[in-house]
Amino acid sequence: MDFRLVLATKLLLKRKGNFIASVTALVIGVMVILFNSLIFNGVAEGILRDLADYQFGHVLVSKNDGNFVNEDLQLISYVQTFSYVEAAAPRLGSIAWMNSTEGASLNEVDKIVIIGVDPLRDPKASLLYSTVNEGSFVASRGQLVLGSNVASDLKATVGTRVDVKMVTASGEDAIRQFVVVGISKSPGGLAFDDSAIMTVEDIREITGRERETDQILIKLTDRSFQNELKSRLSNAYAEENLNIQTLEEAGEETLAGIRSGIAFINLVGYFGLLSASFAIVTIMMLMVSNKTKDIGIIKSLGGKSTDVLIIFILQGLIIGSIAALSGFIVGSIVGLYLQSIEFSFGPGLVLEVVYDPVFTLNSSLFSVVLGTGAAVYPALRASKLQPIDAMQHS
Amino acid sequence: MNPRRRRGIRGNTSIVESVRLTKIYGSGDISTVALNDVSFEIQRGEFVLIVGQSGSGKSTLLHMIGLLDKPTGGRILIDGIDATFLSDSDRSEVRRHKIGFIFQAFNLLADLTVVENVMLPMMMIGNGASSAMRGEAELVLGKVGLAKQVEKQANQLSGGQMQRVAVARALVNRPALVLGDEPTGNLDSKSSQDVINLMKELNRELKQTFVIVTHAREAFGNVDRTIVLKDGKIESIE
Ligand SMILES: Nc1ncnc2c1ncn2[C@@H]1O[C@H](COP(=O)(O)OP(=O)(O)OP(=O)(O)O)[C@@H](O)[C@H]1O
Ligand SMILES: [Mg+2]
Predict the structure, then answer these.
(1) What are B102's strand-pairing partners?
(2) Residues of chain A with pLDDT under 70
(3) B116: which chain A residues are within 8 Å (Cβ-Cβ)?
(4) What CATH code would you report for B45-69+88-237?
(5) Rounded to the nearest whole angstrom, what is the distance from the C-alpha of residue A46 to the centroid of ligand 2?
(6) Would you tell me which residues 75-114 of chain B have a C-beta closer than 8 angstroms to some C-beta of chain A?
(7) Residue B6's CB: how many other CB atoms inside 10 A?
(8) What's the Cα-to-Cα distance from A288 to each of A23, A284, A294, A320, B71, rounded to whole Å?
(9) pLDDT score of A346
(10) CB B135: neighbour CB atoms within 10 A?
(11) DSSP sequence for A111-147
(12) Residue in B112, B116, B121 nearest the CB of A302
């Protein structure tokens, strides 16, 4: 074994305190990167998952020129022939004004977004039904599910009768009475709390848009098939002027807003990493300065400045490698743990944490670079001393 | 290495040549002239003592000869090579291959064992550690009476034991020039005599040059020359 490696290990391992401190500082640095990325990706994935589950499915099909008329069921039957399609359901949106006379006063709400659903198909393709935490989902015509905010504005509970007014395709007002069968409260600010749900048949009938559908959402057994389905559909319906969007495309607008927030979180993370780096450099300086006498002795025996430099860079390498190993182990445990639980910051969005071993390894290996880099400056300084000056250093 | 060799006065190359050597520590009012215009030559194979009162500049002179520090003025030549013209790296090279140094304060590496300390100069010359080196180191440690201490941590030894490790470390490579700064100062008279005998034996048999600083010149018996320092100047060479 090369004498520089012998000295690097001996001088390092006999002084456990500094050694542990520098490894710890590096591991903290790695953990900052890893945790940050787990959270970053967890938030983005959590949002995408919620968008898929409640709003868009994995593939969302609409028409560029108006609505589907009568052809939605045909398209649904077609996509269900693919093995990776779990379910598909039509939706039709509208805007409504509502009032109720509950509690002897007139309570009104304006411009509420109404989601029209197929009571049989929708629960298979979407988790929208699961947002109903009081009463039940719409099962037949004449039933209404109110978002929790809308319900409280209307002072409505399950069983309350609500008058609903919509504008027909020809521009006239149409009013029907509905019974509230459920109140919905959704996780993570999906905005369903400010909307309402009824059957797609009711919306068609009230607004006079017979057999119309504006969106078909398709749920896949695995999200990774979304691009394949998209290209299949665009080939099969080449003449139809369909707008076929994958989850990422449909959710782009929502994600864009969140991304700037995430960028900020990331910035904070990198400052954390920066301070960890300073800590590492400081500890390394301390380690080298504690060894100044030894450096003098090594040089007095014929060690060169480059030998001294190599000794301390090797130490940085050893520290960095041990930190990389520890960082990988700790990072993997944390990642797998956060992946296994439903991790969230308080109520609201549940993060979709995905443990990525390759990224974890790469981030851990970064500590080798950091550890070695931090050793260079103090080692360079120490290696320049005359042997006697170094030995008389106290 | 820059080979500015020059011939000594007697035609052969002196192992050490000091030319008007001056060392001033500090500057201005607080400066100390530790060496003042010191010139001498030491021939290959000589056994030389340096004596003088405390503070007379003995250690400083030895550090200059050992290329451990740079003089303020004058020149030092080792084996005909003028150290003034050497880079730090080349000075290290000279120390590594030609000089063994026994420090007044021992200067062992506390984190290494006794035998590792002694092997280090060999490891620097050969490429890394070998069992032959270990055997050699143990042999020299045996000669200074430390056969039983080889695996001990260097900082767990007594002062006298540390000094003997320092002696072993300086001798193990059989360097052409051995410099000792009171190498027996911490030893009882028996151990002291053992170490002196070992050095004189090596001097006789291997023609190694010894330059030894001491306060007890009588213990060395007959030596080739004794340089007497006083206030940083050579008082006499006997
Ligand atoms: N690093 C230093 N900085 C300032 N002055 C120094 C330094 N080293 C030595 N001196 C001074 O230089 C002079 C010579 O010191 P040196 O150590 O060479 O003496 P010495 O003959 O070895 O003494 P001793 O017998 O006590 O070991 C002394 O006055 C000392 O105080
Ligand atoms: Mg001295």
Answers:
(1) B180
(2) 102-103, 187-191, 273, 346-348, 394
(3) 6, 10
(4) 3.40.50.300
(5) 73
(6) 88-89, 92-93, 95-97, 99, 101, 103, 105, 107-112
(7) 11
(8) 15, 6, 9, 16, 27
(9) 64
(10) 9
(11) EEEEEEE-TTTHHHH-SGGGGEEEE----STTEEEEE
(12) B121
Work out the angle between the directed axes of helices A305-340 and B88-98 (0-180°, nearest 10): 100
Residue of A nearest to B173 (CA): A301
**Test site for ligand 1: of A385, A391, A392, most ligand atoms within 8 A of the Cβ:** A392
d(CA B3, CA A382): 28
Closest-lying ligand 1 atom to the alpha carbon of residue B35: 14
Is A193 in contact with A148 (CB distance < 8 Å)?
A: yes
Query: Which residues fall inside 5 Å of ion ligand 2, going by CB?
Result: B 59
B58 C-alpha to center of ligand 1: Å? 8
Predicted confidence at residue A188, as pLDDT, reads 60
Indicate the pTM of the whole model: 0.75
Which pLDDT band holds residue B1 (cuts at 50, 70, 90)?
Answer: very low
Whole-complex ipTM: 0.91
State pLDDT tens for residues B45-64: 999 999 999 999 999 999 99
pLDDT at site A52? 86
**Domain locations along chain B:** 45-69+88-237
What does DSSP assign to residue B160? H
Domain ranges of chain A: 3-50+254-391, 66-240
Q: How confident is the model at residue B66 (pLDDT cuts 50, 70, 90)?
A: very high
Ligand 1 atom, smallest distance to B232 CA? 14
Ligand 2 centroid to residue B53 C-alpha, Å = 9
Residue of B12, B182, B203, B166 whose CA lies nearest to A300:
B166
pLDDT at A336: 92
pLDDT given at position A394: 64
- Position B74 scores a pLDDT of 95
Nearest-CA distance from A295 to chain B in Å?
9
